[in-house]
Amino acid sequence: MKQKRKRLWGFGVCVLVVFLFVTACTSDEVSEDNDDQRTAWADGRFVETEVILPEEMGIILSLIQLEDGTLRGINQLGLLYDSVDGGFTWSLSEFQFDFLSTGEHLLWAAALNQDGSGFFALEKEHLYIDSQGNETWVEIDLNPTLWLGENVPYTMVLMTFTSNNKILGRGGNAEILYLVEPSTGEIIMNIGELGGWPMFMDWIEVDGQIVTFTSDGFESYDLESGGLLEADRTLAEFYRQREFRVDGAHLRLFPAKEESTFYMVTRSGLYKYTMGGEIEQMIDGAFNHMGNIIYRFGEVIALEDNRFLVFYEGFEEGRVTRLMEYTFRTDVDTFPTGEMTVFTLFSDPRINQGVSAFQSQNPHLIIHHEVGIPSGDSPITVSDVINTLNTQMLAGSGPDVLFLDGMNVDAYIEMVFY
After folding, report:
1. pLDDT per residue over 279-290, tens digit each?
2. pTM for the full predicted model
3. Domains of the chain
4. If exposure means fewest CB atoms within 10 Å of the residue's CB, which of 63, 93, 313, 395 is most exposed?
């Protein structure tokens, strides 16, 4: 693999020249054909920019903005990372939870609170650490009557703090949502039942309600009683018009700064919903990583001035996290006026970062990054990919930028230029 990477970057200068050449040509050609559309939609849009993270940061299980404005995330080893500049740079926090910071404990789930406290699920155990750093081990009777296999823990696997400092979450059995007192482990309320339906994928608390995204769509429950509320017709229609996998990684709910309002991020984009009103699309997922099926959604947070941070989890030479920042810019067109396809035979984080940086610097383009063999255990063979690529290029529909990654340079030069 190291030899392949050397060949790939040995071809990098040639690729860069082609990249810039194609960009110039694509931009000019498209501007002539779409001049009317650019004029009509010149109000700007959200632009995606990648935030470079510390290599050791890993998968973020919980992300919160503390009361002093600091952004704080916790990874699977229990290490805390902070950003004091609104998410542009991250570093290991000076504050750490002593018990977790040894790196000896793998977390199944974590919930951080604005006051600095946290609730953590380890294998068959739960730990509450208050804002003063006091540790309390608690037992939660999740009643795992339906055992789903060795890899499904008896602990919480997804959870958040509520506005009244309770824990709202679920275990490996996704058909029950629990409201828990973190300091004692007492289950205050159950929503759903073992062996029942639907399955809870994600949820958010708003206006005294628990709005849930389930395997049947959106359902709302009263936070005090747990009773099922009348269906929200706007959310029901939103679900009906789209196809969602039964997987919370393909839709996440997260709070807005405004009252009675929350956000949803899906494959089609990011949406804002004010209870009782209309759903407004803020970001179109076709122009960024939201619509990329290689990635699933991790933690999401809304910041001041209509900025958003989205963690993406994917598999690029192992499980990785990428953090994207979305900022509204008035100096770019509402819709990109051109597009470009970049092809790589294998996935490479360095190329991904380069493509992302290029996209950020050229918001007038949509960059489609195609990976022939996305992972090491893919059933697709190199021969299959090359045959498909050759067919596309001979038909004139091949990529604009091609990273050969060990493929025959002369053959493709001849194919393109002769």
Report:
1. 999 998 878 888
2. 0.74
3. 2-44+334-417 (no CATH), 53-328 (2.120.10.30)
4. 395
